[in-house]
Amino acid sequence: MKRFVYEPAVNVNWGDPQHNRTGFYRACSHGCVSVVKFLLNHPLIDITKQQSQGFTAFAIACQNNYPEVVSLLLKDPRINVNKATNDGYTAFPIACLNGNPEVVSLLLADPRIDVNESDKLLYTSFHFACQNGHKEVVSLLLADLRVDVVKPNTNQCSPLWKASQNGYLPVVQLILASEREVDTKTKSIAGPAPWNNKTAAEQARSQGTRVRPVGESGEVFYRKTKNGPLIADLLDSFNADPETTRQQLREVPGIRDSFIGDLFALVVFLCDDLLAVKAEPSSSTSFPSTISKTTRFFQIARCLPMELQMVLCNCVFGARKNAVLTKHSEPAFKKLGSLLAWSERQ
Predict the structure, then answer these.
(1) Domains, the chain
(2) Rounded CA Rg of the chain
């Protein structure tokens, strides 16, 4: 155990004049795990101090994608995981906005995190992940049944609508391929904006003929103009025949892998060793750790051959189909039954 000697001449919580960043903040900002461990044990360190923009050391570790640091901080009772920046953003939406799947997995496992928290414009973390094309994070959030995936912002734009507007075809495919609720028909409310009163399909189709705005990069312009019409056609097909479109999407490279991984994760979710399915329905103490383990199995499953994944799914499902359900496992169980019925038709 390290021994610390108090030296009154040294202010261990000193922050630089411009941004008020302390030594502990900088260690977390740069992912210096050994330094973070050392300072966490220092009796004089203030690990909750905010810099000039309101970022805590915890928030900056989530933003900069240092999962080992985030894991350490989550275990410290002094950390307020919901401390907001000056702009009102907490660590979870910050991690989703920056597309950090490992950090998002850790935060999903913490019961203190509000997964559906929204900002003043009603943008949720799922909005941020979708509108920025972070497919891995979108996949994790879709697999968590607590996440509201259709909640609109103040302009009545759902996360799917924002992904369509920005030309993120893989994200749109992933959302439609899932068994989650989908909103494709609500029209935006944007006043004088050119995208006012448009469905996701209408907005995506309009991107194909747009003029490149001043300041927009060629990469963004190309993505929107190329993928916009493809997304519009896909949404039209989904509206006409959702089930057939889902089945077709699950054969698309990259989307099928996510679908099988989701199926495997849901099977694991029902296992006795991860979720006490025979416990009292009111007991939910194991739920947070279950989510963490489920997302880990989700990541592992996606690396397995698809045939092996399906065999494992069928074996585990057959062994657990008569298990007593809790309030947490029941939605997943219903979804699993639907997905399994589809897989048996293939």
Answers:
(1) 89-248 (1.25.40.20), 252-345 (no CATH)
(2) 22
